[in-house]
# Entry
Amino acid sequence: MKLTDLDPHFIKRSAQFEYDYTDDIKKAEGLSMKCPACHWAFARGRGGVDNVHSITLWRPSGAWDFVGHDYRDLSAMSGRIVCEITTGCRSRFHIKAGRVDFC
# Structure
């Protein structure tokens, strides 16, 4: 699926437990979006896609990076390029060239 289908937003911290949206990929400290696994499941008849929870992928300093210009060509790059949700639905996916694919 396309990353743009998941209503993505680059975010940066503005206070300890607060963040703001940013359009600047270089200033982004994270990426907020709808959960790809739940979006995929709900879009196939298990409820409305508006009920899908959001997730945030924080970019730890030096651990991985955002590569690209915007959401259409974004790749989340690290040694293993897999994003894993460790609670709830526990989906595993990677983001490469603006596409979200499951592992």
